[in-house]
Amino acid sequence: MAITGDGMAAEGALPLHSGAAAKPAPAPAAAVSGDCEAQNIGYRGPTACAAAGITYRQLDYWARTGLVEPSIRPAYGSGTQRLYSFRDVVVLKIVKRLLDTGVSLQNIRTAVQHLRARGLADLTRMTLMSDGATVYECTSPDQVVDLLQGGQGVFGIAVGVVWRDVEGALSQLHGERVDTGETLVGKNPHDELARRRNRAG
Asked: What is the band of 26 on the pLDDT scale with cuts at 50, 70, 90?
C-alpha cells in the first residue's frame, strides 16, 4: 500500500495517499517486543532523541508542528515534559530516515498517519519503499521486487529492523512508568559491571 503521492504503484504494493489512512488493525494479544508491560512505559524527550538518532530541536519542532506528537503526554506549558511511547520513538526514527533520503514533508506526514493507524504486528512486517515522490508499503518480498523492477522503489526502510534498533537502544536508556511516574533504569552493560565491582569491593 502506498503512503503518499500521485504515482501508480507496481502490482501488489499500493502508494499511501493522504486522507486514506489504513484502518487500525487489532494488536496481537502479546505484542511483538511490547507486551502490556512495555505499553506502560514512556520515554522523555532526551531519551527519545537518543534512541531515534535526532536532535532535541528536531523533536521539539516535530511536536509543535504536529508531525510526531507524543501519544502518552504532550507538554503543557513550562514545567511539564513530553512522554513518548515505544511506537512514537519508532516513528521518530523512520521520519528521520525519510527526511534524510529527501522525501517531502507532506508525504512524510501521510506516512506518519499511516504508521500510527497500523497494528503493532503489521509494523514489524512492513517495508516502506520510496522513489522520492511516493512512499509505498510493502508487506512481502515479492512486492519489494515488483517495485524495484518497475523503477518505483529507490530506497527502502524495513520497519521491523528499525523496531529492533529502537528496542535495543531503549533497553539501555531510562524509561518512566506511565501509571506511577517511577523512573526505570536501563540495562546498560557498563552500569551492571560497575554494580558488580561495587558488590565485590
From this structure: very low
Distance separating alpha carbons of residues 22 and 38, to the nearest angstrom: 24
pTM (2 d.p.): 0.76
Longest CA span, the chain: 67
β strands within 31-169, DSSP E = 41-44, 83-84, 127-130, 135-138, 155-158
Residue that the C-alpha cell 501509571 belongs to:
179
Q: Tell me the C-alpha distance between 201 and 188, whole Å.
A: 20
Closest CA to 146 of 11, 2, 4, 6: 11
In degrees rounded to 5, what are phi and psi of residue 158? Answer: -80, 110
SS3 state of residue 132: coil
Residue 79 identity (one-letter amino acid): G
Question: What backbone torsions phi and psi does residue 25 show, to the nearest 5 degrees?
Answer: -95, 145
Please, what is the average pLDDT of the chain?
78
Which pLDDT tens digit goes with each residue over 94-136?
999 999 988 888 889 989 998 988 887 888 889 888 877 788 8
